[in-house]
Amino acid sequence: MNRLFGAKNNAPKPTLNSAITNVDGRIESIDVKLAKLNAELSTYQQRLSRMREGPGKSAIKQKAIKILQQRKQYEAQKDQLQQQSWNMEQAGMMQDNLKNTMATVDAMKTTQKELKKQYGKVDIDKIERMQDEMADLMEVGNDIQESISRSYDVPEDVDEAELDAELEALGEEVDFGGELEGQGEMPGFLQESAGPPQFIDEAPELAKAKEAAT
Fold first, then answer.
1. Is residue 203 part of a domain?
2. Which residues contact 88 (CB under 8 A, 6 or more apart)?
3. Domain span including residue 96
4. Residue 110 domain-assigned?
5. pTM above 0.85, yes or no
6. Looking at per-residue confidence, does 146 or 159 come out higher?
7. How many domains are there within the chain?
8. What is the pLDDT of residues 67-77, one digit of tens each?
9. Is 162 part of any domain?
10. What one-character-per-residue DSSP string does 75-141 give?
């Protein structure tokens, strides 16, 4: 049966990344061949520049032309492979973007479910009643503060003229008290710091001592 229909291929299917790697490897091998062809062309060009016209130069020119044809074929193949690699890279980027988008959608779905659960536990009526109770408590607190800060036995309306008259009376009392204090001071001649009269030339005891000495 295996000879007729072939054996079942159990090898893993190639991934996009592996395909890109294989193509890049082929491009590198072509680069090696192109470098070898360019070196041969450079050698032939140097030989042709030193040769005269003749059969030998024509033969080398034919070889150089064949190498140029090979190089063009390799360059065309390289361009195709590079385009294939770029297309696969774009497909890979699209695949990554799609995966990221699906992950974002799944995260949003999970968040939506959690929000529904959390908001489902919240009773708006209870919150409104709590706000009303807080407002009532604030009003009661304000009433208490006003009651505590109320003044006692102090008239609310005071005549400014009466206050001015009282202030002038206090000023007169202060001036009268200052005059009494000035009158109650001791005269200068009765204070201890006062010395003998200025019209006495010498003290009496000192004068008697001088007369006895003479």
1. no
2. 16, 19, 20, 23
3. 16-148
4. yes
5. no
6. 146
7. 1
8. 889 999 999 99
9. no
10. HHHHHHHHHHHHHHHHHHHHHHHHHHHHHHHHHHHHHHHHHHHHHHT--HHHHHHHHHHHHHHHHHH
